[in-house]
## 1
Amino acid sequence: MSRAVCLRCGAEKGAYDRICPACGHRPDGEGLLVAWLLSDDHLGGDALDTAAERIRGGMPLRPSEAMLQRARRALGLDATRDPGLPWPQRAALLVISLVLTPLVGLTCWFWWRGTRPRSATQAFWLSVPAGVLVWGGVIWIRLGGL
Ligand SMILES: [Zn+2]
């Protein structure tokens, strides 16, 4: 049986992605990466106990970007495994960003940045220039450009 430590309360649980039996916390997004770092897939028995004690003592967890990247690779979430958005989705996102609002793309970027880094980057670069173009145009017209 595998072991993991709840990143919120430090209680022990069976697997890193399970709901904590003590506090009910279920890791998601970036938290899933930290949860994996707090499992026996990554830490040995003693290190896991030390981590649990630190969490119970209220010490903040600050995994380095290198550690998070290691977790992403282990969980198959790194950019090289994220195929990115297919062309129809990219086109739809661009049209939505131009016609409606670039907030849709920014929301996608926000949600995906931990788990689908390539898709998140694509969503960001499709929506931000579109937003700048549209709002720049609106402001230019408002200022009497036309
Ligand atoms: Zn917990």
## 2
Amino acid sequence: MTASKETTSQPNILWICTDEQRLDTLGCYGNPFVLTPHIDQLALSGVRFNHAYVQCPVCTPSRSSFLTGRYTRTTRNRQNGQAIDASEILIPKIFRDHGYYTGLVGKLHLSPCSPDVSPFGEPRTDDGYVEFHWSNSPNPKWPNNEYSQWLMRKGKQFQTKPYNGSKYVHQGMSPEYHQTRWVADTAIRFIETTAHFNHPWFLSVNPTDPHFPLDPPIEYLERYLDILEDIPLPKYVSGELENKPNVQKADHIAATNQPGRFSYGDMTDFDQQMIRAAYWAMVDQIDVQIGRIIDMLHQTGQYDNTIIIFMSDHGDMLGDHGIHLKGPYFYDPLIRVPLIISGPGVIANKQRQALIELVDLAPTLLEASGMPFYPGMQGKSFLSLLTEDNQTDHHREDIYAESYNASWRTWDRKPREKIEKYEQKEDLISQPFTTMLRTNHHKLVVYHGEEMGELYDLQTDPNETTNLWSDQEYKNLKMQLLLRMCDRMAWTSDPLPERISPF
Ligand SMILES: [Ca+2]
């Protein structure tokens, strides 16, 4: 196929954002088990960031933040289940308003998606997406779930069944009918079509995988069954939670306030290894489908003029620290995500150690596409790290993140007192407001209003096992980090509305 894009000088943007994918799930980031050749190839063709961090380890706050270039508190989308305010300007809207043809495939999740309050899918603001191929998850309850519609046209119904021998892993739809396949097919159609028009384009490709529930096709899971015993167990040191905030002890007993759910002490090594196997199998499948999408860029002659971003909206605990799901906490497996960028003018095969906040991505894309800076954005562009080989590998002094009552546990319709395990441990059920500051050397997490917090020395304790919060020797350091955090809290106040005169 030949394209007719001679008149286009602005780059296309292909922004792939998976859901809940940890950094250590890709070959290029050192995972020796997974099969991710296409994403690894993106890293060889572009810049791979080893220290990119989310602003909140939960879908809606994180996505609202990186799609606006604003911190979660500024967007006011601090929790899942909140609707993004219509005044928030999303980056696809800026692109559309500057002549880009825009599209979304898969998940957005900036507003409530639960079918009981959003029976016709996620309510939209003027988000800027011209094409909107929405499928928050495979849940068939929304009539406008395009994945469900696609299945229906093929005479199929979404179904999974527990995988033999594991309570935590399901056998998902076959590769031909999986949501990841639908995401890729839809993205491929978009790319194929847009090749015939002269507008530059911006496409968000947001598969739901590898988010829980773990339901890869059996074909992708099977590869791991023979090597199951080689899969490493979670990084958990028995007793490490004794000196950590109570909410983590509660999640160790039962994740997200739901008795029996991922009760760590009841799980076997087999369970833990099956969970990782299924999670990686979902990533392997994503990689195959990304390969198909990139093929279409090549086939249509658009590859050389397309900036490709691969990232995720947050990670997952996967049993590290004796906890499953995502807290939300600020352990690195939750907040440090893969970020790979390739495209015209981007250096090939480069690794960066610079601290990057995902809030920095939106202004970077604006600058890369020659568009004016939007004054509501709080991130700062790191374009020079992408385009200038000799640029000093530094961007920020520290990473700032927030989780203000963002936990699933605070959305518990059941009366708390009915949950027997927590009856005697009332203090375990906190609704944490937590703020994090991470430097290259230390991480501080404040649990506002509580005596216990977290402090880690990441150089001597990269796995964040030993909490130094109450250690007298670290008192001065803790005070210094607290002051830096206060600075960041002040500096992350909303820059809008703009001040346009002295009085
Ligand atoms: Ca998510």
## 3
Amino acid sequence: MTNPDVLVVGGGIGGLGAAYALARRGLAVRVLEQAAAFGEVGAGIQLAPNCTRILDDYGLLDEAAALGVLPHAMIMRDAVDGSELTRLDLRDLERRYGHPYLVIHRSDLHTMLLRACERAGVHLRTSQSVVAYANTAEGACVTLADGRREEARVVIAADGLHSVARGLLSDDRPVSSAYVAYRGTTPTASGRGAEVDLSEVVVYVGPRCHFVHYGLRGGGLLNQVAVFESPKARAGEEDWGTPDELDAAFERTCDFVREGLPHMWRDRWWRMYDREPLMTWVDGNIALLGDAAHPPLQYIAQGAIMAIEDGWVLGEHLARRLAHDGTVDWPAVLAAYQAVRPEHCRRVLTASRAWGDLWHLDGTSRRNRNALLRERAIDDYSFVDWLYGPTALEPSEEPPMFTPVPLASKADPLTATCGVRRS
Ligand SMILES: Cc1cc2nc3c(=O)[nH]c(=O)nc-3n(C[C@H](O)[C@H](O)[C@H](O)COP(=O)(O)OP(=O)(O)OC[C@H]3O[C@@H](n4cnc5c(N)ncnc54)[C@H](O)[C@@H]3O)c2cc1C
């Protein structure tokens, strides 16, 4: 194969989404993945309407819905007493945004994107570890660990949290939140899995911890996630987030949450990092995408979605600047991408941190938060409109964010703010 039009480094959800978005427009795209096989580690992932809208545009929504679950409600509960704080009616939400809220196994989403890439003719290569990037007179090139070089008109770096390419634009480092996630799936035929209502996505928010559950694979699997702040991380110890800390972190939570802990995988856990927002993602003919550009804390469940949106935005601007003879005005495509995506993702990154702070409150602040959340009207979408509407292609299309409500409005002198409006 001669040089492709585009090299995509990283075959995660972001890289494959971008490869498909560009290949379906007729470009020759090659994906370079460092692992020996394409795959995703982990369990469930939530896809809000700003993502299912794109899957629909790709012709993949029916397949995704068949692989996943379309829940009816998203409910937030207090992890200590188990009481309901607020909810979203996901059928009403689908009517509002035109597309559903979907939960799906990561590996099913990833495999679906991989198959779409294969159908679109993407050249998929594994065991390709990229160690350096450079712009050239004709485009850009990457150097692989074995010393070989690959060239293309444009390189998209979708190489994740520890991105090598990000070093072209910033010397920042991943920021540890000192929080860690445990995950686990369990069959729903009997036991714990059979006790849980799979038509609901539920998050229990508690002091320095939270617990999430929802169904996967047409309801055949229950997905559970337990997240907590590690005291050992806060003390600066290397060995943090271990299973003994998991059990201690949830001691104060209600029976339902504690009974979920034995169902977590205990041989692996995910330490939670993000990075400070980066406002320049393009260096010549090299562009960052996905977690390489904007790794978030996962609290508003938008990390993979932002990555898929990035690819879709690139593909849409490509389509606008693709001449009949196949030439592409790449400087204009990359400039349009740069103009719209960093600001949106900056908002998601900062809102994710604030949302996590809100979830993990204790004492009077927790009680004030609960009072505010209980006051929210069920049809008040003001705090998700900025996320779930159509993905902006131009800066002028980016919707305004919600107005934060000070917790102090509930007679607490705390200065922290709450990510909900009072109804
Ligand atoms: C607990 C948890 C829950 C989450 N829940 C959600 C959710 O519900 N919804 C949501 O949208 N997001 C969620 N996220 C976030 C989401 O998982 C990530 O944002 C998303 O997977 C990032 O995809 P990516 O392709 O950009 O990066 P990655 O998944 O990190 O993929 C990067 C790829 O690049 C490859 N690579 C790395 N370096 C090189 C190299 N030098 N050469 C070649 N290849 C390389 C890697 O092997 C990997 O395959 C969650 C995250 C966590 C931790």
